[in-house]
Design brief:
11 helices; 9 strands; two-stranded antiparallel ribbon; globular; alpha/beta; five-stranded parallel beta sheet
Length: about 350
């Protein structure tokens, strides 16, 4: 035990002596290490941007960067790119409205004219795809020769607030065609189209009025589109009335050659499309195009055109007629045309 204690004590004494000597030896080493560290940091700071010799060799040429991928934007229509002789131009004339007014029929009738080249699909450039730029828009257009007119139609243009300014920025000389129809009949036709795609939709009456037969619900697009005077007022901030032609949807059915003749006059074209091109299809209740020489059958619009309307109570129709009457009268005054809806 005493020996253990002695050994323990001796060990303690030895550690004390060694610690003193070790501290004396470590002090200069620590000082040298500290000096070396300070010098190293100084060198790094004093020579900014300098590279080690190996880095001075010519660096390999950078790999070619990939071109930026185009940004995919929503709701961009899939449209064929036109090819052939001529060149693509911005449209000189646009059918800007209105939905369920007869815009598709008018476009198809006009495409018979050899001096009209029209985009078949609706590009929705000025209301939905404007971010894609005018270059993209022009690339969609059919190629035209000198003297030919480029056209497109998108019925929602007429009711979209930003569109007149955007079209004016493209060209203040653009000719604008608006096909209008009795707003009550147009609203019912609009509802019929939606109902065909969405079975189980509430009744026309439930959507057109608040609280039964309460106030007309102008928030419903089928009703709001028919406020033609309000929409036209927005356009007249940018275009004079002389840039517009208003086509009657009713006369486009009863006298298609007459209305198409007015459009050809407005566009400064010879009246090539005449009554010899049309016949009345009693099944569809709509005019169709007679068989062209190179075609095997007459041309009628698709099944979605001329579909039967749902039955709407007379009281509902009368209430809507009363609602639209002051708007219609103002529209007649603005355009100088009485469309006979009242």
């Amino acid at each position: 035990m005493a020996g253990s204690g002695g050994l323990g004590g001796g060990a303690g004494d030895g550690q004390g002596a060694g610690a003193g000597q070790g501290a004396a030896l470590r002090a200069p080493r620590a000082s040298l290490a500290l000096v070396a560290l300070v010098l190293g940091v100084y060198c790094l700071c004093a020579l900014p941007g300098r590279c080690p010799p190996a880095a001075r060799a010519p660096a390999p040429a950078p790999a070619p960067t990939e071109p930026p991928r185009p940004v995919r934007l929503p709701r961009a229509p899939s449209l064929p790119v036109a090819s052939g002789p001529g060149r693509r131009r911005f449209p000189q004339a646009l059918i800007v409205g209105v939905k369920k007014g007869g815009t598709r029929a008018l476009l198809e009738f006009l495409r018979l004219h050899p001096d009209i080249r029209a985009l078949g699909s609706e590009p929705h450039f000025f209301d939905r795809c404007y971010e894609r730029g005018l270059g993209w828009y022009r690339s969609l257009m059919p190629r035209t020769l000198d003297g030919q007119i480029t056209m497109e139609k998108t019925p929602s243009y007429f009711v979209t607030r930003e569109v007149p300014r955007r079209i004016h920025s493209m060209s203040p000389d653009t000719k604008l065609i608006v096909v209008v129809r009795n707003p009550v009949t147009r609203a019912i036709s609009d509802y019929a189209q939606t109902l065909s795609k969405t079975p189980g939709l509430p009744s026309f009456r439930a959507l057109a009025f608040r609280h039964g037969l309460g106030p007309v619900d102008t928030a419903w697009s089928a009703v709001r589109i028919g406020l033609y005077a309000q929409h036209l007022g927005n356009w007249l901030h940018y275009f004079p009335l002389s840039r517009f032609l208003f086509v009657s949807g009713e006369r486009l059915v009863s006298d298609p050659a007459g209305e198409v003749g007015r459009v050809q006059d407005f566009l400064g074209l010879k009246r090539v499309v005449t009554d010899k091109h049309f016949y009345f299809n009693t099944t569809k209740g709509f005019p169709c195009l007679k068989k062209a020489p190179e075609s095997s059958r007459p041309r009628c619009l698709g099944k979605s055109k001329g579909r039967p309307h749902p039955r709407v109570p007379k009281a509902v129709v009368q209430r809507l007629q009363d609602f639209y009457r002051p708007f219609n009268l103002k529209f007649y005054q603005m355009t100088g045309q009485d469309f006979g809806w009242d």
